[in-house]
Design a protein that fits this description.
Blueprint: H1 14-22, H2 24-32, E1 43-48, E2 51-56, E3 59-60, H3 62-66, H4 71-74, E4 78-83, E5 89-93, H5 94-110, E6 118-122, H6 128-139, E7 142-145, H7 152-162, E8 166-170, E9 173-175, E10 178-180, H8 182-190, E11 198-202, E12 215-217, H9 218-224, E13 234-235, E14 241-245, E15 253-257, H10 260-274, E16 281-284, H11 291-303, E17 307-311, H12 322-329, E18 334-337, H13 339-348, H14 351-354, E19 363-367, H15 373-383, E20 390-393, E21 429-432, E22 444-449, E23 459-460, H16 464-472, E24 483-487, E25 493-498, E26 502-505, E27 508-511, H17 512-520, E28 525-535, E29 539-548, H18 556-570, E30 579-582, H19 596-603, H20 620-638
Parallel strand pairs: 4-17, 6-7, 6-8, 8-11, 11-12, 16-17, 16-18, 18-19, 19-20, 29-30
Antiparallel strand pairs: 1-2, 3-13, 4-5, 9-10, 14-15, 15-23, 21-22, 22-24, 24-25, 26-27, 28-29
Bound molecules: adenosine-5'-monophosphate-propyl ester.
Length: 639
């Protein structure tokens, strides 16, 4: 299927897979022993399908495992080299991080935050973000971090759904040299909510902001706070965080993760995948507002007492050399980024990375979307200088941590550009057809997971039914991630994109239904459908089709900007379509379903013949007519 690269780090621990294959439950039990537990579990896995309770009866604290455990040996070790977008920088040792987290834990307690309460965090990539998460974890409050690119309406939905009474934000955040008014956005989002008790404001940009009765400055409270705090002993299943993510229907849902299982999964996968050593400097470019940042910026590296770089801004700001500059400056040895970022770097040309000293790099990683083989090879050659393995890690917000990846920390297997290689130890995965039968090797089908793993989500916040239907109803007793995949002759998995109505734009998940209902909520819009088409850099971009109400008098130019404005306000700029086509009607099957594949074909300039399978028994002539009509309608409306 493709060329292979025999490159590893010389590790060879076959017994890990052997143990996991023979009994995944006792295997994970062994792995859990790498963490610090206040008291041991009574039961490794209580599986009450489809609800998993890992290490039931055991008590643990995530913040304790990230900080307290390192104070004897590593208190002076750098935990975070922080690089601000505007050139500011800070170095935080494990002792300093520990002190700030304990102080903030006391602040939160003084504000009345109790075990089980939810705290919303809306911060840029500054040290106060992991500090806030760890302070919540320390007292047993469940954090819900919102990516700082989301709009006031999105925040409001999430704050209401999680019923967070306390919010931590900043006066502003830097993005491409501009200040994003985070506090103002928070004020707007909570203006109609009567249950907000406190808003803590970190000073980042020193912008003029309005301080309201619920607001306090973070620094002022921290100054007065004591640095004595004992981490609270929590049930292993205690909810560590809620992270909202887009699905196929409705508004984003809160993925709920527990503590002991999640940490076990992260501890092991970080070690296996990154072969982390005390001397490493690790840099993951993910924003903590997404799951990669939660798992592999905050929790996994800290569990291992690793040193990492945390960067606040855009990877190409102020210019295309920024990232390589950071890698050189901090002697980064492990680099973990996204295919979207790599495609962008590749476009900028080899001269830029070639002019930096990247000789310390020993391992490269990719996450979030399929990596094109040619981008993989560029990464391997130009950044890794043909001496570093690349791990292509497949996982999801819901899986908590990696489920497919090459694992140079435990074995050397040939790498194939574009394949994540094999499932991690302890995971039973298959590719099946619509009826749940295994498809032949080399055939595309749906990826499913047949057993449980410790990082798996516990449920969707406040919606067990939805959790059952979304993930566990398509195939009996199997987890359905919603991805197409193929398993090749060598047992390697190739991830082939989403099988549902979820788009992946620059690696970010966007639900078509959420976007469509936002567009339809514009007063002049009667109907809308969106689809994703391939893009050289972002992987996928959004194209939307809009049917206007009959009596609309506005011109399409102003409607287009109004719709875009509405999307930015309701969701955030990441959901902005690349093109909006105004059409007289949407192509539908006889039963009224929108023919999405047809929309996609038109938007990608493909021919009707390229749509291989027809949906819903609709005749080819009807599809052809719909296709012609739609194309005509687009032309008419664009003249
Ligand atoms: O479609 C898969 C894609 O990203 C989805 C999960 O998105 P999210 O929850 O935002 O988490 C992203 C970071 C883990 C998956 O269902 N995906 C993720 N990693 C890969 C991938 N597709 C192909 N290859 C990957 N390595």
């Amino acid at each position: 299927m493709s060329d292979t690269f025999d490159i590893g780090l010389g590790n060879n621990f076959p017994e890990i897979r052997e143990k996991a294959d023979s009994d995944f439950i006792s295997f994970w039990e062994q792995q859990a022993k790498n963490l610090h537990w206040f008291s041991p579990w009574e039961r490794v896995l209580n599986w009450n399908p489809p609800f998993a309770r890992w290490f039931e009866g055991g008590t643990i604290n995530a913040s304790y495992n990230a900080l307290d455990v390192h104070q004897e040996q590593k208190s002076q070790k750098t935990a975070i080299f922080w690089e601000g977008e505007n050139g500011d920088s800070k170095v935080l040792t494990y002792a300093e991080l520990f002190e700030s987290v304990k102080k903030l834990a006391n602040v939160l307690v003084s504000l009345g935050v109790k075990k089980g309460d939810r705290v919303t965090i809306y911060l840029p990539m500054i040290p106060e973000l992991p500090i806030s998460m760890l302070a919540c974890a320390r007292i047993g409050a469940t954090h819900t971090v919102i990516f700082s690119g989301f709009s006031a309406t999105s925040i409001k939905d999430r704050v209401v759904d999680s019923h967070s009474k306390v919010i931590i934000t900043a006066d502003g955040g830097y993005r491409r040299g501009k200040v994003v008014p985070l506090k103002e956005i928070i004020d707007e989002s909570i203006s109609e909510l009567d249950f907000i008790e406190h808003v803590l404001v970190v000073k980042r940009t020193n912008s003029e902001i309005q301080m309201n009765s619920v607001d306090s400055y973070y620094d002022e409270l921290m100054e007065k706070s004591s640095a004595q705090h004992l981490a609270v002993s929590l049930e292993s299943t205690h909810p560590l965080f809620i992270l909202y993510t887009s699905g196929t229907t409705g508004k984003p849902k809160g993925v709920l993760h527990g503590t002991g299982g999640y940490l076990t999964h992260l501890y092991s996968t970080y070690k296996w995948a990154f072969d982390i050593k005390d001397s490493d400097v690790y840099f993951c470019t993910a924003d903590i507002g997404w799951v990669t940042g939660h798992s592999y910026v905050v929790y996994a590296p800290l569990l291992h007492g690793a040193t990492q770089v945390m960067y606040e801004g855009a990877p190409d700001f102020p210019d295309a050399s920024r990232i390589w500059n950071i890698l050189q400056k901090y002697h980064v040895s492990i680099f973990y980024t996204t295919p979207t970022a790599l495609r962008m770097f590749m476009k900028f040309g080899d001269d830029i990375p070639n002019s930096f000293d990247l000789s310390k790099i020993r391992l490269l990683g990719s996450v979030g979307e399929p990596i094109n083989p040619e981008v993989w090879r560029w990464y391997y050659r130009t950044i890794g200088k043909e001496k570093c393995p690349i791990i292509d890690t497949w996982w999801q917000t819901e899986t908590g941590g990696m489920l497919i990846s090459a694992l140079p920390g435990i074995e050397t297997i040939p790498l194939k550009p574009g394949s994540g290689t094999k499932p991690i130890p302890g995971i039973q995965m298959s590719v099946v057809d619509e009826n749940g039968n295994d498809v032949k090797r080399g055939t595309k089908g749906y990826l499913i997971i047949r057993n449980q793993w410790p990082g798996m989500l516990q449920t969707l916040w406040g919606d067990d039914e939805k959790y059952k239907t979304v993930y566990w109803s398509k195939y009996e007793n199997c987890y359905y991630p919603g991805d197409y995949a193929l398993e090749d002759e060598d047992g390697y998995f190739w991830l082939l994109g989403r099988a549902d109505d979820v788009l992946k734009v620059a690696g970010h998940r966007i639900g078509t239904a959420e976007l469509e209902s936002c567009i339809v909520s514009h007063t002049d819009v009667a109907e809308s459908a969106v689809c994703g088409i391939a893009d050289d850099v972002k992987g996928e971009v959004i194209i939307s089709f809009v049917v206007l109400k009959q009596n609309t008098t506005k011109d399409t130019k102003s409607l287009e900007s109004e719709i875009i404005q509405k999307i930015r306000e309701d969701i955030g700029a990441i959901a902005t379509p690349k093109e909006i086509h105004f059409v007289s009607k949407l192509p539908k099957t006889r039963s009224g379903k929108i023919m999405r594949r047809l929309l996609k074909a038109i938007a990608s300039n493909e021919k009707i013949g390229d749509i291989s399978t027809l949906e819903d028994g609709t005749a080819i002539s009807e599809i052809q007519t719909a296709f012609d009509e739609l194309q005509k309608s687009i032309k008419e409306n664009s003249n």
